[in-house]
């Protein structure tokens, strides 16, 4: 009875220890699992390689005395030559194969085989060198693959007993061909994925261009419609309104002429974007030859504009002339919007192959009715892009007296989108 009473506490203690060990094991597994989940696929594969290499090393060391006559102090090194080169299968398979092949060449020459064991290497060594040869055929350059295949085949032909050498050489050849097949399949799939990515980018770019084209088409239709109404109203106003004085009639004619000019330019730029496929009107491209018309139109609008010319060339490329015209047009529009009533000075000079355009205005007599912060803010950026597209530069700065100056330098022989000259910041 005493024995029974003593045995019950002992049994309970064993159960408590077992439950404590189970809880510790579960706690350890719970703590390790999240860490393993945070590892990438490559890191997990590296851990697997290390684990397999250590397992093979643990097999090769104790079994080495069964296959070869190796002193006990050297056995860890020989076992390491047989198993541990597998650690390089991902980092550098060619180097791992070279170490394994060198060990396979030296071991049979230095150490005799044990009685009853006819093969020159351990099974672990053969498994490792074949795995490394497969990795070399899949990842290394083709000349390295050829050297590794020939060297390994000759090694087996020279050291394998009897007819086994030929069989091993044939098997190694099949192994290398299999690795090359996998390599080409992976390479083709990778190239296909890259091509699909390029196609996807191209499709996205095409979608953006189509959307921009649609917006530009809508812009053309809307603006052209309203500008046509302006032209019609300006031309018909003297006939619809009684008692129109000659001065007012001339003003209406000026408004109509300006609106017609703007309408023609809009049609010339955006008419090609219409979905009906009709060609735009063959209107001449604006250039420096039409600067006087631009200045005169600004004067008719009430602006005070003066212009100076120095060294104008006999000829200029259409792209350079168009850039100068558009920059001057935008500068005059900005001056009329943000500095109404201020005098504007225009200077156009050509020195060598470079044209310099300066548009400066004084401070406005009174603040403009529309704040510049609500005007959109894209005029200067557009002028800078226009200058950059022909290889020029543009700066736009405020003067200390409250005025504003735009200075553009344009190559007179420029062609569109051939230069990457940086634009000075505004």
From TrEMBL:
Catalytic activity reported: ATP + protein L-histidine = ADP + protein N-phospho-L-histidine
Molecular function terms from GO: ATP binding; phosphorelay sensor kinase activity; protein dimerization activity
Transmembrane segments: 45-64, 94-111, 117-135, 167-186
Gene3D superfamilies given in the database record: 1.20.5.1930, Histidine kinase-like ATPase, C-terminal domain (3.30.565.10)
Any Pfam family the entry gives: HisKA_3
Keywords: ATP-binding, Kinase, Membrane, Nucleotide-binding, Phosphoprotein, Transferase, Transmembrane, Transmembrane helix, Two-component regulatory system
GO cellular component, one term: membrane
Signal peptide residues on this chain, from the entry's feature table: none
Protein name from the UniProt record: histidine kinase
Organism of this sequence: Rhodococcus spelaei
